[in-house]
Amino acid sequence: MIVRQSFLIRNATSSDADTIDRLCVEAYEEFRFRVGEINWPRLRETLSRTSELSREGELIVAEDSSGLLGVVLYVPPGRARNAWLRTLAVAPQQRRRGIGRQLMRECIERARHDGAEGIELTTADMMTVALPMYERMGFAKQLDLGNRFGVPHARYVLKLR
């Protein structure tokens, strides 16, 4: 466990599942109209099962005395030698505290520790706060992936070696 800026970064536990699922839906609610009413129910359903991603990797959460503040999925490197990040979400009322950045840093440190050559993520152009943060942290666009949930997505990579 790591304590940073008055919040703790730790691995999620099974008891966090319901809170993680609610937090992700709440965090992405602002994009409801951007993805459209046709795509929102499908995206909401996907987000409401974020805790199930623990089968794919390590769910990492940020918390303080008020509860969970944010979550991200870290997937260690496999055959491709790159680690992956998925579903970074920070509770709307907790934004601007550096929570997303610290969750990202934790994933980057884990990737380095795991010997990854790089770390990848996919994101949408509608992520007007997250996308510039990723770029400031050194992630570069690798590939346009077309539309997902009605919005353009792209793969970004941070080379570690």
List keywords for this structure.
161 residues, alpha+beta, Aminopeptidase, 5 helices, 8 strands, globular
List the uncertain runs. Answer: none
Query: Major β-sheet, in short?
Result: 8 strands, mixed
Q: What is the CATH T-level topology?
A: Aminopeptidase
Distance between the termini: 26 Å
Instruction: Report the sheet-strand fraction.
Output: 35-45%
Shape: globular
Percent of residues in helices comes to 25-40%
The Rg value, from CA coordinates, equals 15 Å
Q: Secondary-structure element order, as H and E?
A: EEHHHEEEHEHEE
What is the strand tally?
A: 8
Give the oligomeric state.
single chain
Sheet with the most strands: spatial strand order: 1-2-3-4-5-6-8-7
The CATH class is Alpha Beta
Textual characterization of the structure:
This protein is an alpha+beta fold. The chain has a single domain (2-159), classed as Gcn5-related N-acetyltransferase (GNAT) (Aminopeptidase). It has 5 helices and 8 strands, in the order E-E-H-H-H-E-E-E-H-E-H-E-E. An 8-stranded mixed sheet has the order 1-2-3-4-5-6-8-7. Strand 5, helix 4 (99-113) and strand 6 (118-124) form a beta-alpha-beta unit. The model has no long low-confidence stretch (mean pLDDT 93).
Write the layout of secondary structure elements.
Elements: E1 2-4, E2 7-11, H1 17-28, H2 32-35, H3 40-47, E3 58-64, E4 67-75, E5 82-90, H4 99-113, E6 118-124, H5 130-136, E7 140-148, E8 151-159
Parallel strand pairs: 5-6
Antiparallel strand pairs: 1-2, 2-3, 3-4, 4-5, 6-8, 7-8
